[in-house]
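Risk register update: the risk that structure generation would not scale has been downgraded. Supporting records follow, first protein first.
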Amino acid sequence: MSEPATVKVNPDFTGGKTIRQIAAEIGVSRQAVHQKRKSKELSATLQPFTSIVNGAVYISADGEALIKKAFASSGYQRVEANKAATVESSVYGVLKATIDTLQEQLVVKDEQLAAKDAQIAEITSALLSAQQTVQAAQALHAGTIQTQLRNSSNRGIFSRVFGKRNRNAKPDAKMDT
């Protein structure tokens, strides 16, 4: 069987709160309250306001007031304030890292856009050159067509269709035989 729980009862003790409850009210850790309770300045003073029941430390309302006063006079920071500062600091760190990453990406994108602009300039130049070449070829072809039309327009339609070929041309070899 298990041994009976240790009970240390103070005759002047009437109810009270646990260290955890006091720590939650003050906004500090339970370890901080425990250390403050064991400190030189409060150890002897809190003895009449403290009782241990089943391993749990209970402190009366008067003892609670002494602990709160000790924390107030020492300028001890609240856990919530520390947590808020820590959260704010970590959020700031994350945001700063994100901003730095985005700025680096922006620099890379700017370089990529500059490269694309250079490619577009090269392609535009090549396209203009190709257009000029096509226009020159079209002009040459149009000139050739016009020359052919002028040479053939001296002859009438029947002579062009049924007429003799060029007079200076040599007759075919079969016709001579």
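Supporting record for the second protein:
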Amino acid sequence: MEQDENEHFFDYSEILDRVRALCLSFPGTSERISHGAPTFFVAEKKSFVQFHNNHHNDGKVALWCAAPEGMQAQLIESDSAVYFRPGYVGHLGWIGVRLDRDAEWHDLVGVIQDAYLTKAPKKLLVDLKRSLGYFLKE
């Protein structure tokens, strides 16, 4: 009998649902499958988070997230069991976060928020800050 290559992975639908709810809570965001993975976009064009479950049999269940300059190295240095440099987008500064290594939800929230802030156009950032009670200097 053939064995499913993903059968040893847990069901990550609950965490994906939480990630989805957070990503889609930001102004101007959407979701669609891109390169075989659930991917979250801002302004319909710029991806800021991807969810991967055993991407190309790498054995990882992870988020790939856009990150501010310098954040990738800082996070990997702080906890290399959870954070890694993902393929394809790692050279662009994106950070990988392993969900199969007990990453803390509050840490995931921070990484996802940073990903959105890194990719969102200025107008959406202004709208977001206004809705949160912050005002940008003109």
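The domain at 13-131 is CATH 3.90.1150.30 (Aspartate Aminotransferase, domain 1). On this basis the risk owner (M.S.) recommends closing the item.
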